[in-house]
Amino acid sequence: SWLKPEKLVPMHGEIRHLQENARLARECGIPDVRYITNGELLRLAPGELDVIDEIPVARRYRDGRLLLHEGESAVRERRRLSIVGLAAIAVTLDQRGNVLGDPDVAIDGIPIEDADGDDMEDIILDAVDGTIDSIPPRRRKDPELVREAVRRAVRSAIDQAWGKKPIVKVLVNQLRIKG
Question: Which end of the chain is more exposed for a tag (fewer CB within 10 A), N or C?
Fold first, then answer.
């Protein structure tokens, strides 16, 4: 009432806060009131308040030396990693599809044991062995098929043991002997 503003643009809060601030301003006698949402470009003068353009807006994250959009996979993936952890499995197959040696397992952010005290790496290795054994030897020659089958089985085994579905990466190496 002291300043007697002619225009008001509420600028803080959620949409319902902006609407209520605009309603209050009108009740107080301010003739030109306009609330805007993110990305709207408002002309303040001359004349009445008016939205004159849209500007693209989004959250951005500083990631090392990069500036990334909110939806970019690196930021989203690290967020998931912080919640569900990572299991990495390396399997080596010969050219006939036979497993060479024991698979290597590395887990980060996943409990070492389940609620019964069973070792999580043993649970993972059992899932890997069972999955590979269930694939006919001729089909094991397809590394992508083996990779996806092992990934799903390990993710499911950890989910059953822990109640969370981690990020699972499977590396399938094929040893080819020439000659």
Answer: C
Give yes or no for a contact between 114 and 123, defined as CB atoms under 8 angstroms apart. Answer: yes
- 61 token code pair: 């994250």
In this predicted model, what pLDDT tens digit does every residue of 121-174 receive, in sequence order?
999 999 999 999 999 988 999 999 999 999 999 999 999 999 999 999 999 999
Q: How far apart are CA 44 and CA 119, in angstroms?
A: 65
Backbone angles phi, psi at 121, to 5 degrees: -65, -35
Asked whether the beta carbons of 143 and 128 are under 8 A apart, the reply is no
pLDDT at residue 12, rounded to an integer:
86
Q: CB–CB of 35/9 below 8 Å?
A: yes
- Which residues 6+ apart lie within 8 Å of 2 measured at CB? none
Task: Give percent of the chain above pLDDT 70.
Answer: 99
3-class SS letters over 1-47 = CCCCCCEECCCCCCHHHHHHHHHHHHHCCCCEECCCCCCEEEECCCC
Using DSSP, state whether 112 is helix, strand or coil: coil
Pairwise CA distance, residues 75 & 61, whole Å: 8
